[in-house]
């Protein structure tokens, strides 16, 4: 069968391969870590830094199609690969979504609103920006941030100098955003195929703890109008960007029903892991379909679901709980996914559990009292 080459060997790549394997594809991966979550199960692993052009060329030689599982792949390497192999997602989408300012401009160009923002090039810019937006407001590095790293919530003008100095060390542009007093955080994962077909997965309601996703709740507890609007927004951005494959769209919903897009990710997304057990097609299968130029699959939700992340500190209690599934209501089925990471460091994403339920409130209550997530 054909071989899919994946830049990056993390859990997103691993779950992509688990889905693609079932469809008969072989997988090769390039990742700096030997025995990465994808490396463990791939047909071939190339161990080298992401920006190593020679290693990337080697991946291209072994692959019929190339995709990526994280967005900080060197866009230059991606562009080079386009002349060596088939890279249906191109390098433009990476280039845009790697940089918060370019990303925000692209979202606005699609006719969708983002939180008011300013480019910050000096501490004077930051003083002006904080004066304009008021406090709190959020200073972010334009590139490289994740799980809330590379950002600073400025709560008082006294923090301006320190916030600027700290984030400026990252040697990237900075962006200041107005603080959105959101009622909920939502995300929609859209998929677009090379033939221009677009599908949006059901809206997920996301709850973060310490800037790391804790729960995804689907169906989201929002009105039908907001649901439809959120799905339209994601599809419109995917179309406007000419995205191929998955595009995750994170949004804020305010009390008066307004949506602001926070950020994009051109890849499978943690808030889409619920689709693995709860949708007719998973996000991973959908991405394989899109990059292999197959028809997209149906995305309907089969059951209400709550996805709960397993971080390093949750692994030991989870393994113990799995022996008898103590206290799990009969109406809830718990589907455990673990990524094969060796070191269960605190806050590190190690796995997730999809709780298939008749009632999301029941599953949320169960998580909140469960010994697994108490740690
Ligand atoms: P991810 O791990 O999702 O890639 P990230 O580090 O790229 O995260 P963001 O998603 O931009 O960071 O922000 C992290 C969280 O901080 C958001 O999910 C939200 O809870 C909060 N946040 C970010 N920007 C704002 C804002 N402008 N107003 C209010 N809250 C915000
Ligand atoms: Mg991000
Ligand atoms: Mg985010």
UniProtKB/TrEMBL annotation:
It catalyses: 5-amino-1-(5-phospho-beta-D-ribosyl)imidazole + hydrogencarbonate + ATP = 5-carboxyamino-1-(5-phospho-D-ribosyl)imidazole + ADP + phosphate + 2 H(+). Signal peptide: none annotated. Pfam families: ATP-grasp, PurK_C, RS_preATP-grasp-like. ATP binds at residues 100, 140, 145-151, 177-180, 185, 208, 262-263. GO terms for molecular function: 5-(carboxyamino)imidazole ribonucleotide synthase activity. Homodimer. Catalyzes the ATP-dependent conversion of 5-aminoimidazole ribonucleotide (AIR) and HCO(3)(-) to N5-carboxyaminoimidazole ribonucleotide (N5-CAIR). PANTHER family: PHOSPHORIBOSYLAMINOIMIDAZOLE CARBOXYLASE, PURINE BIOSYNTHESIS PROTEIN 6/7, PUR6/7. This is N5-carboxyaminoimidazole ribonucleotide synthase.
């Amino acid at each position: 069968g054909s071989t899919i080459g994946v830049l990056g060997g993390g859990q997103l790549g691993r779950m992509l391969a688990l889905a693609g394997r079932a469809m008969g594809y072989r997988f090769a991966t390039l990742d700096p870590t030997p025995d990465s979550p994808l490396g463990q199960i791939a047909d071939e692993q190339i161990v080298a830094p992401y920006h190593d052009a020679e290693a990337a060329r080697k991946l291209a030689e072994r692959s019929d199609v190339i995709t990526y599982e994280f967005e900080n792949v060197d866009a230059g390497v991606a562009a080079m690969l386009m002349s060596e192999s088939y890279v249906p997602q191109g390098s433009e989408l990476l280039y845009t979504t790697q940089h918060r300012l370019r990303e925000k401009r692209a979202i606005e160009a699609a006719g969708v609103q983002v939180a008011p923002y300013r480019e910050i090039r000096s501490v004077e810019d930051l003083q002006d920006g904080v004066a304009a937006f008021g406090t709190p407001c959020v200073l972010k590095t334009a590139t490289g941030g994740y799980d809330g790293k590379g950002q600073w919530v400025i709560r008082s003008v006294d923090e301006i100098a320190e916030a600027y100095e700290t984030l400026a060390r990252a040697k990237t542009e900075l962006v200041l955003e107005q603080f959105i007093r959101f009622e909920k955080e939502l995300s929609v994962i859209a998929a677009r195929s090379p033939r221009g077909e677009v599908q949006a997965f059901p809206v997920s309601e996301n709850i973060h703890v310490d800037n790391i996703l804790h729960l995804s709740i689907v169906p989201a507890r929002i009105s039908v109008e907001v649901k439809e609007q959120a799905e339209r927004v994601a599809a419109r951005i995917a179309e406007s960007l000419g995205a191929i494959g998955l595009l995750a769209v994170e949004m804020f919903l305010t009390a008066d029903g307004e949506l602001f897009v926070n950020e994009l990710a051109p890849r499978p997304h943690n808030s889409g892991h619920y689709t693995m057990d709860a949708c007719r097609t998973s996000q991973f299968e959908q991405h394989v379909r899109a990059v292999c130029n197959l028809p997209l699959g149906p995305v309907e939700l089969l059951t209400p679901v709550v996805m709960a992340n397993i971080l390093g500190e949750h692994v030991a209690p989870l393994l113990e709980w799995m022996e008898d599934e103590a206290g799990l209501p009969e109406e809830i089925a718990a589907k455990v996914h673990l990524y094969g990471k060796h070191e269960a460091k605190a806050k590190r994403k190690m796995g997730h559990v999809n709780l298939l339920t008749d009632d999301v409130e029941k599953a949320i209550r169960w998580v909140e009292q469960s010994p697994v997530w108490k740690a």
